[in-house]
């Protein structure tokens, strides 16, 4: 179930809009909203653009698009595909309505009026049955979304206690590929040198014999 939504500017974590939550939801999610602020502070220009962060009974899913972070707090059992479908819907509407103004605003919650669209969209995604039924009316989003298995998953404890960043894992994989290529080249050079050491004496003997035969019969 979709519980709460927060939209901030990625570059400085300035709140742009948020869902209007009732008092009960506000109290239940107080700790997790504080954790969301931590997530916003950990986001860098190299941060993973889509990520799910598990925290107790909830999961914080976020999407970064055009210097805007869209974050939803949902039940841990809520399907990630639907959570990111919801965030995709918000990002498309938000950039259409306010995209040109995002970089210029200075006060928090400058786009508070967006909560009307968030509330309407959230109601379509309140549970998996409603969201699945709405999928056909929203352009079959389940089929169009990218593979959710590619979305990075972290645990909130990693961020709180180990200070893990949200940088893209691709930087690590690129570095590993580069190092692997260096080792492969070094291995090839070593093999060539070993072959030369092994067969060079034999080649030298044959060369001397050929020279002697040529000199003897020329």
Automatic annotation (TrEMBL):
SMART domains: Longin (SM01270). GO terms for cellular component: endoplasmic reticulum membrane; Golgi membrane. The keyword Coiled coil applies. It is a single-pass type IV membrane protein. SUPFAM superfamilies: SNARE fusion complex, SNARE-like. The keyword Endoplasmic reticulum applies. It comes from the Eukaryota. Coiled coil: none annotated. The chain crosses the membrane at residues 199-217. Keywords: Coiled coil, Endoplasmic reticulum, ER-Golgi transport, Golgi apparatus, Membrane, Protein transport, Transmembrane, Transmembrane helix, Transport. Belongs to the synaptobrevin family. This is Protein transport protein SEC22. It comes from Ceriporiopsis subvermispora (strain B). The lineage of its organism: Eukaryota, Fungi, Dikarya, Basidiomycota, Agaricomycotina.
